[in-house]
Amino acid sequence: MLGFTSQIPIVWLLLLLLSTTIFERCNSSNTQLGISNCNEKDRSALLLFKLGVENHSSNKLSSWSINEKNCCSWKGVQCDNITGRVTTLDLHQQYLEGEINLQSLFQIEFLTYLDLSLNGFTTLSSFNQSNDHNNNNLSNIQYLDLSFNDDLHLDNLHWLSKFSSLKSLNLSQINLQNQTNWLQSIDMLHVSLLELRLSSCHLTDIFASVKHVSFTNSLATLDLSANHFDSELPAWLFEHGNDMNISHIDLSFNFLKGQIPKSLLSLRKLETLRLSNNELNESIPDWLGQHENLKYLGLAENMFRGSIPSSLGKLSSLVDLSVSSDFLTGNIPTSIGKLFNLKSLVIGGSSLSGVLSEIHFSNLSSLETLVLSAPISFDMDSKWIPPFQLNGISLSNTILGPKFPTWIYTQRSLEYLEIPNSRVSSIDGDIFWRFVTNITHLNLSNNSMSADLSNVTLNSELLFMDHNNFRGGLPHISANVIYLDLSHNSFFGTISPMFCHRLGRENSLDYLDISFNLLTGEIPDCWEYWKGLSFLFMESNMLTGEVPPSMDLFIDLIILDLHNNSLSGNFSLDLSNITNLQFINIGENNFSGTVPVKMPRSMEVMILRSNQFEGNIPPQLCNFSSLIQLDLSHNKLSGSIPKCISNITGMGGAKKTSHYPFEFKLYTKGRDLEYYDYGLLRTLDLSANNLSGEIPSQVFNLVQLKSLNLSRNHFTGKIPRDIGDMKNLESLDLSDNKLVGGIPVTTSTLSFLSFLNLSNNYLVGQIPVGTQLQSFDASYYVGNPGLCGAPLPICDHGSYLHGGHNDIDNDENSFTQSLYFGLGVGFAVGFWCICGPLFLNSAWRHTYFRFLNNVFVVVGFSN
Ligand SMILES: *[C@@H]1O[C@H](CO)[C@@H](O)[C@H](O)[C@H]1NC(C)=O
Ligand SMILES: *[C@@H]1O[C@H](CO)[C@@H](O)[C@H](O)[C@H]1NC(C)=O
Ligand SMILES: *[C@@H]1O[C@H](CO)[C@@H](O)[C@H](O)[C@H]1NC(C)=O
Ligand SMILES: *[C@@H]1O[C@H](CO)[C@@H](O)[C@H](O)[C@H]1NC(C)=O
Ligand SMILES: *[C@@H]1O[C@H](CO)[C@@H](O)[C@H](O)[C@H]1NC(C)=O
Ligand SMILES: *[C@@H]1O[C@H](CO)[C@@H](O)[C@H](O)[C@H]1NC(C)=O
Ligand SMILES: *[C@@H]1O[C@H](CO)[C@@H](O)[C@H](O)[C@H]1NC(C)=O
Ligand SMILES: *[C@@H]1O[C@H](CO)[C@@H](O)[C@H](O)[C@H]1NC(C)=O
Ligand SMILES: *[C@@H]1O[C@H](CO)[C@@H](O)[C@H](O)[C@H]1NC(C)=O
Ligand SMILES: *[C@@H]1O[C@H](CO)[C@@H](O)[C@H](O)[C@H]1NC(C)=O
Ligand SMILES: *[C@@H]1O[C@H](CO)[C@@H](O)[C@H](O)[C@H]1NC(C)=O
């Protein structure tokens, strides 16, 4: 031991001695001995660059100190160890902000490598054009990477002209939206560019018809993925044919149309061709099979027609193949079974057909991931031993069942197993659960698996088991589980076996969905074991009793949904310290007492409908300034609407979106509609209570509201003209109240309005004419004895004069204007709004987490 430790200090000491002597010598004799100490000019240029960063963020580049003379030891700086001149500046991912002062970097004459990627720079100081002749030194920079500075918007690329030695240019994820001549700017460089990456730059024009650009002579890598190109594949990419050096082309995630041109065959060095996620709509050419150097071929998520050519089986170098399109027909060719180098195979198409057999996989001994999404059945011998050991299998929307195939059990190193919507109903109990126990990501959604899980312990990190026939008591879960969706099954019994079962260590559960089952009994007071939960869905069961006090321990909770159970008592939890909480739905229960307000200010959605809450609407609700949805309907609330309601800026002020999109059902427009992202909605529903008094004008200041429902109360007074300010309104229900006066003409300026119910009030006068107000059914106006005009019977002179003349007078000026607004726009947009909400016929309950679920597939498809 002693010998060991005593040696280390000696080494250290030597090093220390060495470095101090070097340092001193350098200081005294200034690079005479060929040891790096930086050039004074380079140093001051770097300090100038630092200023641009420092002005926006303090303490960045702190090692770049004025006191440290040797700039070669500064973070990210490398010098030539003979000349002491700065050659490399690599500051990627240093959280830098502010300005990239290019002019200062240009003064570093020997700089060849500049990497400022993955930072937060917002501006790039261009060169001062009028200074150009005094300062026409050209840069030696060969490698320039400014990518992933997401907030950097560049209006032009003129400054690139100085980079006369450039070999590699990466401006990915920089906004070049206004740079309409990007291709020409790069061509003007007249350099031997080897790599060009402009991925995700908001580019719109790929200049498909330009035949000639010179930079493609040398180019080896071209990445133009994730832009907005919507033409055919560009001619300039293929024009030099055999002379071209290009080996890597990525045009995926655009909107490219048409076909793959045969001139592609002349790109003999091509190894990677990524065209996935476009709209290519001709057939997949047969001649592709002649491109024997191809290693990565990405054709997924296009609109290809015809069949998958069997010539693809000739691409013997292929490592990665993805093909999918809903217009592809026919079988999957058996020739793919010859691709012995293949590691990843992705095939998808809802119109493909046929049977996959062992021949399809005969030589795929290198295969690691298999992704298949097509209505294809499997004909494998139950004793088949595949030639591969996969780490990922995704077979979705296939005809895999009814029995879980035995060949999958031969795969000993699986990390992902997804078989959603694949008609599997039968699993071999213990064998299956033992097999999946070490699989990280398991998706069994939307099959009809029926098994009693009360003795099973789940162990995967991500578990999607929704929409099956799993029954019995809830399974046990290990401390590894992060995400668990057991919704839409037939689990029964109480929750306590799962939740009061103490685990060896702190559990990881973040997301739990046990909604839409047959669970009964009380919610157990065992939540102290589950403090890490962020998402908890227990709705649509038959839970009873009060909500246990330990539920306020959920310090990380974001979404809590308990609706449609039979819970009762006061909802007395104090959730005000749960600062992340945004969404609570305790509707359709039997909660009583006053409206709960012990919630954090950040609340966005509060749904308390269909309970027994009584008393007034508490003014504390006005403190929830972020609130975008409030539903207190179908309770026993009385009194009037507090005037402070306009303090809810979420409904009145600037628009913002929420970030947990998941399917969400909302009662609006007279029916239940499913929405995809609650963050986009703004609703206030106070219907079916005993509220009274005039509707305060402040309600009509909530101008972001899309749905306002005050029906079935005792409101009195008139509908104010201000209603015309609620320009976002799509659904308005004031029916079954005691409202008087006319329908303000301003109502017709609500051009998004697609649902209106004013029935059963004391409204009078003529329904404003010539607007979309006529397109609503007459039943939405009936029960107002003094109301007339289309769609109700036409006004006789008497009732018209008697009722509406006040309002008509007031609104005369805006009438013509509203006529124009009301027509056209109102109709079109109204129609859109009806069709707009997404009715996801989903196998997936929570779309936010769908990304987790699709990570694997996306990885597979990303090529
Ligand atoms: C930094 O800010 C100061 C004063 O705000 C200004 O004079 C200076 O020019 C700025 N420097 C850079 C590099 O932006
Ligand atoms: C300069 O640095 C390079 C790379 O670190 C090294 O290979 C080379 O030997 C060094 N030259 C001298 C003279 O120290
Ligand atoms: C341009 O290069 C010349 C010669 O290398 C040098 O003297 C001059 O200072 C440089 N100009 C600038 C602005 O860097
Ligand atoms: C460019 O340089 C000229 C001359 O030095 C100066 O007058 C002008 O203000 C500069 N422009 C900018 C935008 O810095
Ligand atoms: C930018 O492109 C270069 C050249 O292809 C590559 O080496 C580099 O990793 C890219 N930068 C980032 C941040 O991806
Ligand atoms: C593009 O130009 C338009 C009009 O000049 C401007 O409004 C917009 O902000 C610019 N966009 C970017 C990303 O610079
Ligand atoms: C072709 O690309 C390779 C890199 O893949 C590069 O080393 C070579 O210099 C390029 N050839 C030409 C002629 O530019
Ligand atoms: C799961 O992993 C553990 C630990 O790596 C190992 O001991 C066990 O045998 C594995 N179980 C199965 C069924 O593969
Ligand atoms: C669960 O395990 C218990 C005890 O081992 C056994 O009595 C019971 O039948 C099992 N239940 C199921 C559904 O397998
Ligand atoms: C909320 O936090 C405050 C301050 O940390 C604390 O005093 C208070 O007791 C907490 N309330 C609840 C209900 O936990
Ligand atoms: C509503 O906002 C006004 C002005 O900001 C403020 O004076 C008032 O106290 C607020 N009311 C409530 C109940 O928060």
Descriptive account of the structure:
With 863 residues, the protein is an alpha/beta fold. Among the domains are: 142 residues, Leucine-rich repeat, LRR (right-handed beta-alpha superhelix), CATH 3.80.10; 38 residues. Helices cover 14% and strands 21% of the residues. It is built from 10 helices and 49 strands. Strand 19, helix 5 and strand 20 form a beta-alpha-beta unit. The longest helix is centred in the N-terminal third of the chain and has 28 residues. The N terminus and C terminus are likely disordered. The protein binds 2-acetamido-2-deoxy-beta-D-glucopyranose (NAG) (11 copies).
List its salient traits.
EC 2.7.11.1; 10 helices; transmembrane helix; disordered N terminus; repeat; LRR_N_plant-typ; disordered C terminus; alpha/beta; 863 residues; binds 2-acetamido-2-deoxy-beta-D-glucopyranose; serine/threonine-protein kinase; 49 strands
Average per-residue pLDDT, rounded, comes to 83
Q: Mind telling me the CATH superfamily name of one domain?
A: Ribonuclease Inhibitor
What is the terminal separation in angstroms?
53 Å
Helicity, as a percent range: 10-25%
User: Counting H and I runs of at least 4 residues, what is the number of helices?
Assistant: 10
CATH class of one domain: Alpha Beta
Give the structural class.
alpha/beta
Shape: globular
| CATH architecture classification of one domain | Alpha-Beta Horseshoe
| Alpha carbon gyration radius | 34 Å
Percent range for β-strand residues = 15-25%
CATH fold field value of one domain: Leucine-rich repeat, LRR (right-handed beta-alpha superhelix)
Subcellular location: Cell membrane
Keywords: Cell membrane, Glycoprotein, Kinase, Leucine-rich repeat, Membrane, Receptor, Repeat, Serine/threonine-protein kinase, Signal, Transferase, Transmembrane, Transmembrane helix
Protein name: Putative non-specific serine/threonine protein kinase
Pfam families: LRR_1, LRR_8, LRRNT_2
